[in-house]
Amino acid sequence: MTDLRLNSNDEQPSSRLADLLAALRTQLPENRIRTGNDIPPRHHSDWNRADPQCPAALLQPRNTDEVSLMMRLCHAHGQSVVPQGGLTGLVSGAEPRRQDIALSLEHLNSIEGIDGAGYMTVQSGVTLEAAQNAAEQEGYLFALDIGARGSCTIGGNIATNAGGNRVVRYGMARQLVIGLEVVLADGTVLNMLDKVVKNNTGYDLKQMFIGSEGTLGIITRAVLKLHPQPRSYQCALLGLPGTRNAIETLKLAHAALGGTLSAYEVMFPDFYDYIPGIANLRQPLAPEHAIYVLLDAQGSDAGLDARRFQSFLEELFEQGLIADAAVASSMQDAQAFWALRDAVSELPLHIPKRSTFDVSFPLDVMEAAVQEIREQVNQRWPDALMLCFGHLGDNNLHIVVDVPGTQGRHAEDIESIVYGSVGRHNGAISAEHGLGSKKRQHIGVTRSAAEIATMHTLKQALDPQGILNPGKVL
Ligand SMILES: Cc1cc2nc3c(=O)[nH]c(=O)nc-3n(C[C@H](O)[C@H](O)[C@H](O)COP(=O)(O)OP(=O)(O)OC[C@H]3O[C@@H](n4cnc5c(N)ncnc54)[C@H](O)[C@@H]3O)c2cc1C
User: Fold this and answer.
1) With a 6 A CB cut-off, is 155 part of the ligand 1 pocket?
2) How far apart are CA 203 and CA 195, in angstroms?
3) CB 51 within 8 A of CB 172
4) Separation of 49 CA from ligand 1 center, angstroms?
5) 425 band by pLDDT with thresholds 50, 70 and 90
6) Residue 397 to residue 409: CA distance in whole angstroms
7) Are the C-beta atoms of residues 311 and 229 closer than 8 Å to each other?
8) Which residue's CA is the closest to the ligand 1 atom numbered 8?
């Protein structure tokens, strides 16, 4: 691919870039192209802030035709493009280099409508929260939910195949997308805005773009699947004597709650004991259990669901699966329970140089894997802090490790320990955040050489010049 770095004095863009910017300015309306100090610093990086750099230009299209035109011109000039949504990604997937052009979808922010079948069509820059609110106003639930809901966009959610708290009930972003519109590297528009559940007409191309982190195409519009608004809600925080109990309790919850189980989050004691101190929260249960489970059930019949929830908890006590439970008697109680789990957003302030992991393990080896990682970390750094929490209902654990006073110097060694365990136990190095540039060198831990080669073949076919989000994923 042509090298489009700025000239050595770093002031004048290469003539190829200058030609491209001139063509873009001629063919697009005003206010679509920003350069230099006119680019807001937030476009220099995503939430991970690994290596913030001002891109060569920022493009701000308003509709699919403009995205298509921009990509056609960038393609013709061999210009690399980094798609940006709400910039809440945690793996530097939307972080540009200074020779890249950042293409922000934030102004494609219209909710086009909700039809009678419960499908919502949106532009990709709509925030997750705006989509949730629009669904709620029409009596529906858009079930995807993550902590970054106020800023992250539907396009970013789809490009990362986002997960979150409700996957155990409704699936990941992939399960909530029924149609997609994508602009390819050369500007071709693929309109796959289906509204039919069954469509086995050849390959289902949209699946290829979901989770592709902006490396195969730019998502411009989507048709989202909505669910009925729940009419009942139960929430409890459970204290359990062991990790294995959490897995047994999960099985029983699936069987006993009549399909209403909507969240199943675990907090290990290290997390449960540490978080209240930094977030000024109280612990609803005494800190004396081997593991804590935060459980939500959403149903359609308040009376029946409450009775079913109560007898489920009684069964857990009778079987000795749980030692204690705090049941939310109001929305305020439930929010207080969830505040513990959501306080994870405070961690960057308190442990800025921490190593963070978003990994999956098969359920039957999860306990052994966590134990193995903990032992290795403690053996190497006896004063290390290790916090473990996550979406046990979907095999997903988040692990945070910090070795005090070392300013993150041991990050690579910590990675070796965690990813070594992931590899040995057939887990995944990225459960839901993606690879971006942060984790791409570890892809071989989870994917075979044949899988990686097939990914390269796909990338080569769709983006032969490699202009879409270079240096990410592969
Ligand atoms: C507090 C907090 C909590 C979080 N919790 C969760 C969680 O529970 N589960 C979870 O999965 N993630 C979580 N995340 C990570 C993040 O919010 C998600 O990855 C989210 O889906 C990213 O959306 P975004 O719009 O911010 O995308 P960005 O960060 O802007 O981009 C993410 C990736 O998608 C690409 N991209 C963005 N928009 C498009 C588009 N329209 N077309 C093609 N490619 C595009 C980018 O190039 C980049 O590779 C959390 C983040 C924070 C800060």
Assistant:
1) yes
2) 16
3) no
4) 13
5) very high
6) 23
7) no
8) 164
What mean pLDDT comes out for the span 172-195?
97
Domains of the chain: 15-107 (3.30.43.10), 111-228 (3.30.465.10), 232-345 (3.30.70.2190), 351-433 (3.30.70.2740)
Distance CA 176, CA 179 (A): 9
What is the DSSP secondary structure assignment for residue 441, as one 8-state letter? G
Cβ–ligand 1 distance for 84 under 6 Å, the answer: yes
CA–chain centroid gap for 191, Å, is: 25
Q: What is the CA(351)–ligand 1 centre distance, in A? A: 22
Which atom from ligand 1 is nearest to the alpha carbon of 220?
A: 41
Cα dihedral sign, 226-228-231-234: negative
- Does residue 83 have its Cβ closer than 6 Å to ligand 1? yes
Residue type, 149: R
Residue 430 neighbours by CB distance under 10 Å? 27
- Please check whether residue 354 is in contact with residue 402, taking contact to mean a CB–CB distance below 8 angstroms: yes
Look at residue 202 and tell me whether its pLDDT is greater than 90.
yes
Give the Å distance between the CA of 87 and the centre of ligand 1. 6
CB-count burial class (<10 Å; 0-12, 13-18, 19+) for 288: exposed
Cα(18) to centroid of ligand 1, in Å?
31
Is there a contact between 373 and 423 (Cβ–Cβ < 8 Å)?
Answer: no
33 contacts: CB under 8 Å, gap ≥ 6: 21, 24, 25, 57, 58, 59, 60
Q: Residue 392 and residue 240: Cα distance in Å, rounded?
A: 14
* Whole-complex ipTM: 0.99
Residue of 179, 274, 255 whose CA lies nearest to 220 = 179
Give strand pairing partners of 237.
294, 326
Given a cut of 70, is residue 406 above it in pLDDT? yes
Which atom of ligand 1 is found nearest the CA of 163?
11
